[in-house]
Amino acid sequence: MTPPAQRNGAVGAAPLAPAMLAAVEAELESVVRQALPGPYAEVEAMVRHHLGWEAGAVPGKRVRPLLTLLCAASAGGDWRRAVPAAASVELIHNFSLVHDDIEDSSPTRRGRPTVWSRWGVPQAINTGDFLHVASHLACHRLLGGGISVETALAAQRELDDACLQLTLGQYLDLAFEGRPAVAAEEYLRMIAGKTASLVSAAAGVGAVVAEAASGARDAYRKFGWSLGIAFQMLDDLLGIWGEPDQTGKSAADDLRQGKKTFPVLLGLQRSPEFVRLWAAARGNSPDVDSLRRALEDCGAESDTRREAETHTAQAMEALHSAGPRPPAADELRSLAERLLRRDR
Predict the structure, then answer these.
(1) pTM for this structure?
(2) What percent of the chain has pLDDT over 90?
């Protein structure tokens, strides 16, 4: 199974990133190939489809594994030894995406059919399970690269904890859809699990494999956690105000599905007009344009952006306290800045 040449230009422009991304892609290919001996062509086809290993497809940005490798390097380690952990991070992320697409009834991702919409829900569940198991197999490969058993177990534990928090966060996200009111504190707990936990682990596991001091590991985890919170808030904005030709999905998705995202929670708290439109949309086709205008009028869009900036500042403060080493430190800062000024 040979993935296409890298097309992650936005993230791969920095000096270390191209080699890191190429190493992650090769490791993903190797892990999947090793896990698929024998005649399982359709399983391979589903995995290739989801990972973007098809002609004309654009793979994901591989941001999380890049964070792992940049954090490993900036913590003083050899990033090459952390590649199996980075591949594990990416496989965890992708197993969650396959399952999320089913739970959200999303027919497309990155402008292409999702696994469930092309092969059906049962096979998509199985594909997500395969990717989850493959993430463990990837992390086990740390041992073949000279990493101690103790460090490899610590890395696996970090990623398992993130998987647990991710699952609990996804539960809250789904549960919120059927509730009339959700407190801001509940929302923050949800995105801490659903998004920030894996971004935090991606950064933290890099420091773990680099055998950084405990204080530095904690700082990298906090950096990833704050970055993840800000990233999810921006994702909430894109889910309402993003351009479909940039995001690869309808800008109406979050409003149509009744998702209690941060701008929506602010609208429900502040705007009687939004509350009226939100209630009228239940069971009907929502008036997306009017809903968006009501959110803008009550300051939900601008305040969500401001909240994202606050968490961005906290992320950069945590990164500074970790004492990262150049040149990886500069790339890590640049990557964080690009993630929080994106349009997709």
Answers:
(1) 0.88
(2) 75
